[in-house]
Amino acid sequence: MKNYKKIYWLICIILNTNLFVINKPSHAYIPNIYSPNPKVLIDTSIGIGLTASEYIKYGQTKEAIGLAKLAISLNPKEIELWIILARAQLSNNKLEEALISIERAKNINPNIPILWFTKASIEMQMGEIQLAINSINKCLKIEKKNSNAYFLLGNAKLIQKNHTEALDAFTKATKVKPNFWQAINNKGLIYFELGNKKQAIQIWRKVLKIKSDPEPKLALAIALYSIEPANKESIKLAKEALQENPNYFSQAHQKEQLWGEKLQEAGKTLFKNPKLKAVINKASANSRFTN
Q1: DSSP letters of 51-80?
Q2: For residue range 114-139, what is the model confidence (pLDDT) as tens digits?
Q3: Closest CA to 206 of 231, 172, 170, 181
Q4: What is the pTM of this model?
Q5: Which helix (H) or strand (E) holds 235?
Q6: Residue 148, domain extent
Q7: How many domains does the chain have?
Q8: pLDDT tens, 254-288?
């Protein structure tokens, strides 16, 4: 009982003490609104834009679109950010949106080569080959030594089966960039379609000295086999190519890579070789395409 009394009196003392404490009036907290320096916004937007560009490189296109839009909201007058957004949209197959982004970039400055190159890439994917050629020519008018533009022009002419102009464009691409193996490789595609198999073989051997890639490996294997079915090198190269990239067993993928009808048909003949049965079965199972 004594303990309860002690506690009771202690509570009373505390309460009475608090009565004599003077409470200071509380002031409402008014936040200080931060206005960032315009240079900070520009620097931040460029950093975000570069990150978006990296995301495109690694196939994270949806994230890249979000980042590019954020960067543009901070710095809408930066043409490169609109181009990055267009590239992200192109990679995500949002072609109409990509064209709108390019138009926004054009309104800022139409004299940027990458703008016209990106526009051409979008038009190529839309199947508007002549529009793409017009855009590429505008790119080359601004920047004459643009190897990528010549390469894209060569691809457009190859789709149109304009072999002479395609060869010319690929040759110009390699003059600007001598080790541009994709451009050299595509010259081989043209020579094979024109019936000049030996020239195609020379070209693909040259490519493989620059880059050991499954496409020229398989193309060379097909060309060698079409001349001499007993050629052991052709079987070896075909096995290596299909193990490295099983998609090349598919005609749909071959068409995407602009292989002509003659090379595709010759490939079918090679694939019937019994020595390739095991690798063909595996490639067929692992390819993201179906024949």
Answers
A1: HHHHHHHTT-HHHHHHHHHHHHHH-TT-HH
A2: 999 999 999 999 999 999 999 999 99
A3: 181
A4: 0.83
A5: helix 232-244
A6: 113-178
A7: 3
A8: 999 999 999 999 999 999 999 999 999 999 998 88
